[in-house]
Amino acid sequence: MKIDPSNPADLSAQIAKAIRDAIVAGDLIVDERLPSEAELADQFEVSRPTVREALKRLAAQSLIRTQRGAFGGAFINRLSYPDAYGQQITTATLLLSMNDVRFDTACEARYALERACAPLSAQRRSADHLATMRAEIFRQQQPGLTDEAFCASDVAFHRALVDGAGNPVLSYQLAGAVEGMQPLMNMITFTARSREEIVGLHTAIADAIEAQDGEAARDGLTRLERYTIHLARSVMEERAKRGA
């Protein structure tokens, strides 16, 4: 593992990348102990605080874990899909908020991915996945439910549909598509949407999943996408009129 001292990039970032690349390449394996901070400092010809900062970067990405004691140190971590969900959601949310992605574009991406998942979920979903979807539909019908709670329930409903596909790679990818895009969708449609309309569409989707009818589930998601885009356009047109 090497770094380029003449590179203007932060030295700790270079060290973190070098170690990360070694993990990806398989040169460093799960549970392997990294050299000590002093050894790494000698290897990279940097100070120990610089190495310490690099290790903090890797720990923040769940790529390493630290243990104290006589047999302690920094060890290569086994990154799990649940551990990575939060990072995927944060990254997707930031990309959308910082790059001025159009609502239609975000909506199209989310529902295209979720429709691809629907047939698998219809065939593989467990009783627990279906029970979660039904429970969230029931929750969404409660008159005292706040807008924030309704949004959280909406996410839980769609995550149950996605997780029902039984494919952790799809669940990971769709974590960003469903939860990462939710703040953008809520910002546009928060107060204007009809809960009754959404509950009806959610019920149709859950019915299709229960009947193992993947095509009907896809159709329900398409109708939900059309409703969402229509609602967003209506909201933005109304804002434009008020601003004129």
Description:
The chain is mainly α and 244 residues long. The chain folds into 2 domains: 66 residues, Orthogonal Bundle (Arc Repressor Mutant, subunit A), CATH 1.10.10.10; 163 residues, Up-down Bundle (Four Helix Bundle (Hemerythrin (Met), subunit A)). It is 71% helix and 3% strand. The chain is built from 11 helices and 2 strands; from the N terminus they run αααββαααααααα. Strands 1-2 form a two-stranded antiparallel ribbon. α1 packs across α3, α2 packs across α3 and α4 runs parallel beside α8. The longest helix is centred in the last third of the chain and has 30 residues. The protein is elongated and about 65 Å long.
What is the overall number of helices? 11
CATH class category of the largest domain: Mainly Alpha
* Strand line-up in the sheet with most strands: 1-2
Major sheet summary line: 2 strands, antiparallel
Order of helices and strands: HHHEEHHHHHHHH
> Residue share in helices?
over 70%
Domain tally: 2
Label the overall shape: elongated
Name some characteristics of this structure.
Four Helix Bundle (Hemerythrin (Met), subunit A), Arc Repressor Mutant, subunit A, mainly alpha, two-stranded antiparallel ribbon, 2 domains, 244 residues
Write the layout of secondary structure elements.
Layout: H1 11-25, H2 37-44, H3 48-60, E1 64-67, E2 73-76, H4 81-98, H5 103-124, H6 127-140, H7 147-163, H8 168-180, H9 182-189, H10 195-210, H11 214-243
Antiparallel strand pairs: 1-2
